[in-house]
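INTERNAL AUDIT FORM
Audit reference: QA-55
Scope: verify that the stored structure record matches its stored sequence.
Auditor: D.O.
Record contents follow.
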Amino acid sequence: MIMTIRTRREAAGMNQQALGVAMGVSQGTVSEWEKEVYLPKARDLPLLARVLGCSIDDLYAEDDGDPPDRLEAS
């Protein structure tokens, strides 16, 4: 599972600097999030999702591009 911050940021028409300002972090921190050197703290995810116009779940994607497996009722 990978974070899709860069994809979501670009779709929102923001550069790293603008996202950093909105999140109260540096452009370097945003860059590290996007490279997965570090990940945003859990407490920052609601604001990040709001700034990027998505849900917290939307910030994550499967490595292979497929949606996550869902349990089916039997």
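Auditor finding: record pair retrieved intact. The chain has one domain: 2-60.
Action required: none
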